[in-house]
Amino acid sequence: PGAIGPNYSLNPASTLDAGLYDCVVTGGCGSSTSGAGLLTVREWPTFSAQPVSISRCAGEPASFSVSVRGFGPLTYQWRRGGFNIDGATSRVFDIASVGAGDVASYDCVVTGGCGSTTSNPSSLSLLTSPAITTQPTAASGCTGGEVTLSIVATGDPAPTFQWRKGGSDINGATGAGLTLSSLTSNDAASYDCMVTNPCG
Q: Do strands 122-134 and 54-57 pair parallel, antiparallel, or not at all (unpaired)?
């Protein structure tokens, strides 16, 4: 509709516009139809899946990936902090063993026949194993009295706690402190605490 001049423009063109076009020219003596011209619309690189930020423990593998459609051939270049990573030229970028030096922002520049586009940035963060900074100390109490054992631990993410008596878990004893009330001789034992997060 409306395409009635000697020229026909599509601005902007989309993949839906691809196809064969011809022109019917009409004068006082009749009509004539031109030959067909094929319009091929090449698509800019477009991300159908962006890289996702991840957290890993030291020594674990990590992987970033993208999915891209567009007029090819497509090439990939991963970057760390805006600088090209040597050899990181595929759709997936793998880090075999994560260390402190890998903590950064990553993105991927994809280039096709119509130009280049850059993915959203994604970050790699390093989780830390639990570390006990204050150990529980030996305690004593009188029959019927109360004793509290405590521990201080760090880690990222924050660790969970499980107190044990003689190597067996104490049901519900999952805080940084363990309070024993109404002491009896049965409470005399060796107590320790298991501190856990995803890194160990």
A: parallel
